[in-house]
Amino acid sequence: MVRFLLARPIAVFMTFLALMVFSFIVLRMLPISLLPPIDVPQIVVKVNYPNASPEAIEQNVLSNIREELITLNGLEEMDSKAGSEVGTIRLTFDYATQMELAYIDVNEKIDRITNSLPEGLTRPEVIRINTSDIPVARVQVIPKEGVDEIEVSLLAENVLKKRIEQLPGVSLVDINGKKERIITVEPNESAIRALGMSQQNVIAAIQAGNSELPGVSVKDGQFRYYLRLATRVDTPRDIESLPVSAPSGAIVPLGRLAKVSYQAKEMLGYHLFGENEALVITVHKQAAAKMNELIPELKAAIELFREDYPQVDFDLTQDQSNLLNAAISNLQTSLLFGGIFAFGVLFLFMKNYRLPLIIGVSLPSSLLISFLVFYFFDISINIISLSGLALGIGMLIDNSIIVLDNITRKREAGLSLFESCVAGVDEVMSALISSVLTTLSVFVPLVFLSGISGALFFDQAVAVAAILSVSLAVAFILLPMLYFIFFSRSKKVDDGQEGAFFQKIMGLYEKGYALIFGHRKLAIGIFAILIPLGLGISLILDSEGLPQIEKLDATLEVDWNEPISATENRDRVTVLMKALSGQYQKAEADVGVRQFLLFDGENSIQQSLLYFLFATVEEKDQMLANLGSYLDENYPEANYTLGDAPNAFDQLFNSALPYYEVRWKDLTSKEPVSEEKMDPWLSQFPVPDWERGPGLQKEASVVFSLRADRLATYQIAVDQVQEQLSRLFGTFTISDIRRFGEVTPIRLKESDSRFEDLLRTTQIGTSDSTYYTLGEFVDYRYEDHYKYVTADKGGIFQSVFVTTLNPDQYNADFIRWGADRNLGVSMVGQYFKDQENIRQLIGILLISILLLYFILAAQFESFIQPLIVVLTLPLGIGGAFLVLLLAGSSLNVMSAIGLVVMLGIMVNDAILKIDTINRLRKEYVESPEVSANEALEMAIHRAGQIRLKPILMTSITTILALIPIIFSSGLGADLQRPLVYSVLGGLTIGTLTALYFVPLAYWFFVSKKKLKEG
Fold this sequence. Notes:
The protein has 1014 residues and is of the alpha+beta class. The chain folds into 4 domains: 2-33 and 324-488 and 504-546 and 835-1013, Multidrug efflux transporter AcrB transmembrane domain (Multidrug efflux transporter AcrB transmembrane fold); 39-129, Multidrug efflux transporter AcrB pore domain (Alpha-Beta Plaits, 2-Layer Sandwich); 181-264 and 701-786, Multidrug efflux transporter AcrB TolC docking domain, DN and DC subdomains (2-Layer Sandwich), CATH 3.30.2090.10; 661-697 and 787-828, 2-Layer Sandwich (Alpha-Beta Plaits), CATH 3.30.70. Helices cover 53% and strands 18% of the residues. The strands form 7 sheets. Strands 1, 2, 3, 4, 20, 21, 28, 29 and 30 form a 9-stranded antiparallel beta sheet that branches. Strands 5, 6, 13, 14, 15, 16, 17, 18 and 19 form a 9-stranded antiparallel beta sheet that branches. A 4-stranded mixed beta sheet has the order 12-7-24-23. A hairpin with a 3-residue loop joins β2 (75-82) and β3 (86-93). α2 (9-29) crosses α11. 38% of the residues are buried. Keywords: Membrane, Transmembrane, Transmembrane helix. GO terms for molecular function: xenobiotic transmembrane transporter activity.
């Protein structure tokens, strides 16, 4: 094939040129995003039930929805949580489930049971979770002093939101912190009673004045007109002019009985930017959009907003494109330094400027053509696929060096230029194909990991397979053609004499070879000891998901653990911001209930999430310490969590599951166990280290009870008292004004007085116009009750989070504790997911090693020789672990990727070394003057000399290209550093392994059998 293609260099060159042109066009069409558009198999159902207790939400709403949804296809887990006014159900599906169909199915089932839900309940929201739901940036909208905040809310909703939605690549715009205008009616009780009326007269007058005649029309000859009542109100002035009839027959304007005005609707949540109230607009990108084009468009739009709306300030925060820019920057750095160091090393070893130029052409062309594969597999350019390309670049340089070195040796051996190119490629073709297949055999099976890890590895596996496959085509076709073109006019052929630099290296290698083969048994024994020692280092290494990144931002999650209002929550956060003023660059906070459509977390008035951005890490650490002290001193009841601000990786990988949760259900009542029973039982829990789960957390509440005896004595109807209570304490909506989609509620104004005072001062009338205070018919008491009601597929449960080490050893104790109290106990949590993932990973790695073995057995036609390659792997892994330990790094996703890169290069070197030994041995055995034993010794020695240069060049170019990352700073360098440590450690040991362990193991494990056959 190579001979055929080299005979047609123009056709080959034009074909590659056409491929590169098409690849460049495709590259401009590929979507660029932070993460692949993964379908996270979760759906959240949210229920908003104003003025309802957790028990009412569970019994009347969530239990009905769970019963309907339990038959969903692919449903693995279903957990629900009912709190005050809010309930959520989180559905987790198998990863094979088509989430588009599951989303439709959930909506259909909820529509089916809508009629059985409480009257007046708004339809439950169904939220589908996707990686594209993670906002790419947040736009802060801050009203300037004196500007009406409600007008700014209307500006954000009706103008800014729509203008941002029109930007190319934007899929959704979400807003939090909006303020709405309502009309409040504040009755004048003394005036109403003086005229012998009640609040009901005022309410009835407003309802009558705002009534409509929907669908009513009159005919006037050939015309038909739809009727609109002239009494319909639009403004507070219209309402105040409505007539109210007194029992005496007098007609009184409503304005004399009540004060009507525009006011801001009571907020259940706020957004703060710094110490000021603001709005935040989160921007979400389309799956096919390019993030690196979207963010500049968004910044340009914000500049226009500043000019168009000078009464408002704007700012951009939490820009997630920084991670993507870091990945692209790292790839560019790898290419740049890879090219520079490859040039330097090749020039140092080969003394010819043409060879580095050939690699300089082949490297970017391979990378560019790889994007064609991205297009056909519908893969976007994201951090995961870019890391796959970065993996393949090391192998790409490796293949190029090996092919060029082999062609050069053939030419030095006296073959013509054309024959050197053909023979040089043919000789290493099968070994290079095997090395690529073995690399893929180690990597591709990771795609079959369950969960999100497997979904993410798909992009990476395709990227690695793409660049390795293209690199083979380039190495076998383009490189020899370029070599032929570059050297076709050069009549001078090198005499084969190496430069002084390489001769010194060869001398060192020969000394090492003599030492190793002079003490063969001792050397193989040392290698045998190093294998378990190196692998054992993993036991003392820390493990984590992602490496520790030097972040300049942090978050504070606070649950004040008190029944405070949203206004008090806002005031506390504002005071906290003022106390820390000057210690941060930017700060924002989502206080109380969040208005985001896509928010799938827990909405609570008592909670807040604060975000801080700092100039330096030192300032961040100092401020977090001050923050903790401030909260401990001023709010000892508060529960808070300080930590790094989550990026898109954290939001994707973090699990909602607790680490280890012990759940129990009452087998008799199927209700939460009462506090009187539960507290003594918890004091006897088998382990001391535990925390209360949501179903055991308590909060203070006020319980009203009606005095039926007094109501009967004074002949007051129960519903009359209940209605008065709902007007007094609830959000009582009299009517709504609807204009072109804008809805303005008309509500009774809620009093700011304490409820005890209201019960003492509010009066209720009887049929004989006698008035009594409401407090005479209502008793109240304070009591603690459960804050949440939690349930799963099997019904209501309560739980504790176990924080002790190795909680799995207490399983029998947990079950025995529950059985003694007639409780059904089960254990769930991330602990079990991690155990399952580890078992899967071990199984997949074993399959990978088997695949590697089978490929090599087919390549070498031997069952023994592949074992030599397999035995080199633990030596390289041990070297990687050693460097990670010395550098203070950990086992994480990035260091694991580095291991794969390193193993790919190590396997490549070992395969080529064994292939060269086998080929030379056959040549030497054919000579009658050489015995089988001598042929073996000569083949091992000569193969070491031949492969020394390419092994050193590939290792040195890879190591030198990665070293600058160690001394770099920033987000990208922090992510890549563990990968670099793995590659450096593995290749340093791996190079020695390829040089000495492979020939030594070959002599021990292969030679005796061959000698007997010989």
